[in-house]
Design brief:
The protein has 2 domains: 156 residues, 3-Layer(aba) Sandwich (Rossmann fold); 162 residues, Alpha-Beta Complex (L-2-Hydroxyisocaproate Dehydrogenase, Chain A, domain 2). The protein is an alpha/beta fold. The strands form 4 sheets. Strands 5-4-3-6-7-8 form a 6-stranded parallel β-sheet, sandwiched between helices. It has a 3-stranded antiparallel β-sheet with strand order 11-12-13. A two-stranded antiparallel ribbon has the order 1-2. 40% of the residues lie in helices and 18% in strands. The structure holds 1,4-dihydronicotinamide adenine dinucleotide and oxaloacetate ion. The site of oxaloacetate ion has 10 residues, from helix 8. This is malate dehydrogenase. It catalyses: (S)-malate + NAD(+) = oxaloacetate + NADH + H(+). Keywords: NAD, Oxidoreductase, Tricarboxylic acid cycle.
Length: 334
C-alpha cells in the first residue's frame, strides 16, 4: 500500500497527494477499532493538514503513535480527561468524522445499538453545532439510519442546520459490493448502492454495472451478501466487534472525496443524506448519488431510470424501514 512516498494507491481510487489548502479533520472515537486505522489513513492523506483525535480515553497514545508517521500534518489528541478536550478537538474543524459508539455482537441488529449510541451521537453533534457549525459531519456510528436524523435534529435545534453538510457514511456497502463483484468480473468496478445502512435498506444496483450479467440466483445471493455483509464480519469476529479495517478504509475514502470537493474538484459520491427524492412517501433521508462541492452536497441525482424492476421493488420495501428508523432518531432528540 505504501508503494512510494507520493503514491498511496487503494483499489480503484487513490487518496490525495496534492499540496493541500489548510484542512483540519477531527475524529471522534479515535481510539476505537475503526478510529485507530481511520486516523492512520487520514494521517497518510496529504490533504489533511491538521488531524485532531478525540476519544473518552486512550487518545494520547493513539495521537503519539499516529503522529510519528512522516507526513507533514500536525496531530493532536484529546480525551474526556482534558479540560474542554472535545471543544479543543473540534475548533476550526473542516470535517468531523464520528465512529464513536458501541459495535454489534452476534445476534444483534444495528438498531439494538440505538439505546447506547443515540445519546453519544446526540452529545457529540451538540458539541459540533456549538464549536464548528460549518464543518461537514461524517457519521459512522450505528444505526446510521437513525444517527443521521439525530445529528440533523440537534443542528436544527441549535439553529445551524445545513442539510448539505451532514452525511451518513455508507461507503462500506459500496466497497463490499465492488469487492464481491470484483471476483465475478475479474476486475474492480464501482457498484452503486442506495437506500440506507441496515439489512434490507441496503440496495446494490447491479443493473448499473456495465458488462455484468447475473442469473437471478446470483443476483439474489450477491444482493443478500451486500445487505448482510456486516453480519458476516460480526460473526467471524465472534463477540469482538464488527468491521473496523474495511470501515476505516471506506471512511477514509469518503473523507478524501469531501476534501477533494473542498479544494474545487468536481466529485461524485454516494451518501446517506437529507433528500427530497422520496418526499411523496414521507421519507427524509436516503443514500443516493450526489455531486459534492466545497459546501457539501451540490446536487442530488435521481435514481437512474434504468434500474431493474427487482431493484425498484427493493427500494419500495426499504422505504417503510427507513421511515421507522428516521422517526425513531428524530423523536429521540425531540
Ligand atoms: N457506518 C458503517 O458502515 C459502520 C459503522 N460501524 C459503527 O461504528 C461504531 C464504532 O465501531 P468500533 O470502532 O468497532 O467500536 P469500538 O468500541 O472499537 O470503538 C468505539 C470508540 O468510541 C469511543 N467512544 C464512546 N463514547 C464516546 C464519546 N462520547 N465520545 C468519544 N468517543 C467515544 C470508545 O471509547 C471507543 O474507543 C459502532 O457503532 C459500529 O456499529 C461499524 C462498521 C461500519
Ligand atoms: O455490521 C455492523 O454492525 C457494522 C456495520 O455497519 C457494517 O459492517 O456494515
Amino acid at each position: 500500500m505504501f508503494a512510494t512516498r507520493n503514491s498511496l494507491k487503494l483499489a480503484a481510487r487513490s487518496f490525495s497527494t496534492a499540496t493541500p489548502q489548510q484542512s483540519k479533520v477531527a475524529v471522534l472515537g479515535a481510539a476505537g477499532g475503526i478510529g485507530q486505522p481511520l486516523s492512520l489513513l487520514l494521517k497518510a492523506n496529504a490533504r489533511v493538514t491538521k488531524l485532531s483525535l478525540y476519544d473518552i480515553h486512550n487518545t494520547p497514545g493513539v495521537a503519539a503513535d499516529v503522529g510519528h508517521v512522516n507526513t507533514l500534518s500536525e496531530v493532536t489528541g484529546y480525551s474526556a480527561k482534558d479540560q474542554d478536550g472535545l471543544k479543543k478537538a473540534l475548533e476550526g474543524a473542516e470535517l468531523v468524522v464520528i465512529p464513536a459508539g458501541v459495535p454489534r455482537k452476534p445476534g444483534m441488529t444495528r438498531d439494538d445499538l440505538f439505546n447506547t449510541n443515540a445519546g453519544i451521537v446526540r452529545d457529540l453533534a451538540q458539541a459540533c453545532a456549538e464549536v464548528c457549525p460549518k464543518a461537514k459531519l461524517l457519521i459512522i456510528s450505528n444505526p446510521v439510519n437513525s444517527t443521521v436524523p439525530i445529528a440533523s435534529e440537534v443542528f436544527k435545534k441549535a439553529g445551524v442546520y445545513d442539510a448539505k453538510k451532514i452525511f451518513g457514511v455508507t461507503s462500506l456497502d459500496l466497497v463490499r459490493a465492488s469487492r464481491f463483484i470484483g471476483d465475478k468480473m475479474g476486475k474492480i468496478v464501482d457498484v452503486p448502492v442506495v437506500g440506507g445502512h441496515a439489512g434490507i435498506t441496503i440496495i446494490p444496483l447491479f443493473s448499473q454495472v456495465k458488462g455484468l450479467t447475473l442469473s437471478n440466483e446470483e443476483r439474489d445471493a450477491l444482493t443478500h451478501r451486500v445487505q448482510f455483509g456486516g453480519d458476516e464480519v460480526v460473526q467471524a469476529k465472534d463477540g469482538l466487534g464488527s468491521a473496523t479495517l474495511s470501515m476505516a478504509y471506506a471512511g477514509a475514502r469518503f473523507a478524501d472525496s469531501l476534501l477533494r470537493a473542498n479544494s474545487g474538484e468536481d466529485v461524485l459520491e454516494w451518501a446517506f443524506i437529507r433528500s427530497d427524492l422520496f418526499e411523496k412517501e414521507g421519507l427524509e433521508y436516503f443514500s443516493t448519488y450526489v455531486k459534492l462541492d466545497k459546501d457539501g452536497v451540490k446536487e442530488i441525482l435521481p435514481l437512474p431510470e434504468s434500474i431493474s424492476a427487482y431493484e425498484r421493488e427493493l427500494v419500495q420495501k426499504a422505504i417503510p424501514e427507513l421511515k421507522k428508523s428516521e422517526t425513531k432518531g428524530a423523536s429521540f432528540v425531540a
